[in-house]
Design a protein that fits this description.
The chain has about 180 residues and is mainly α. The chain has a domain of about 110 residues. It contains seven helices and no strands. α1 crosses α4. The longest helix has about 40 residues. The chain starts with 6 loop residues before the first helix and ends with a helix. The model has no long low-confidence stretch (mean pLDDT about 90).
Length: about 180
């Protein structure tokens, strides 16, 4: 179900995703909580279920993880929405990444560049955790699902087990009606 948005709404979508592009430390998925706030809670262009399904569908498909942005945009306003969202998320960060890579490579041994690089790890981890929290929202009332989330977190933090085994465990639990 896609809405027909006016040019001003498409520009607002583009502008919001442009801003998020500059905050997407660790990838576009780290800004999913704000995308959810904007698209679901503020603009009411998508429902909670549509948002979660869009992210899940795009993450399950082969290709770059950023494709979930195109699916969200498409679900908001069809092809123009997908183009506005993708252009917004890709243009600023790509331009900044190209410039910063060239600049940082020539100064990689300076104290400031090393400190910046070390400081980005906890920021990225925090953004990824907040994304997980938002994406788990529809299943928070299901005890089995939250048990799987906790188990997966512990297993991933303490072992080198492939995440695919945890995905398979979740699929089996969901098919059996436990999650």
């Amino acid at each position: 179900m896609t809405a027909t948005l006016h040019a001003a709404d498409l520009f607002a979508l583009f502008a919001h995703f442009t801003m998020l592009s500059l905050l997407a430390v660790g990838g576009a998925i780290t800004t999913a909580p704000d995308m959810h706030r904007y698209l679901v809670a503020e603009q009411h262009w998508l429902t909670d279920a549509q948002f979660t399904a869009s992210v899940a569908l795009a993450q399950a498909a082969p290709g770059p993880n950023v494709l979930f942005v195109a699916v969200l945009g498409y679900n908001v306003a069809g092809l123009p929405g997908a183009m506005a969202a993708m252009a917004g998320i890709m243009l600023p960060s790509t331009t900044l990444a190209l410039w910063a890579t060239r600049w940082g490579r020539s100064r990689r041994e300076t104290r400031g560049v090393r400190a910046f690089t070390l400081g980005m790890a906890p920021l990225t981890l925090g953004l990824l955790l907040s994304t997980g929290w938002v994406l788990a929202e529809p299943s928070r009332q299901i005890p089995g699902a939250m048990l799987l989330v906790g188990l997966s977190t512990v297993v991933m933090a303490r072992t080198r087990l492939s995440p695919m085994w945890l995905v398979a465990l979740g699929a089996v639990a969901g098919a059996a009606g436990y999650a």
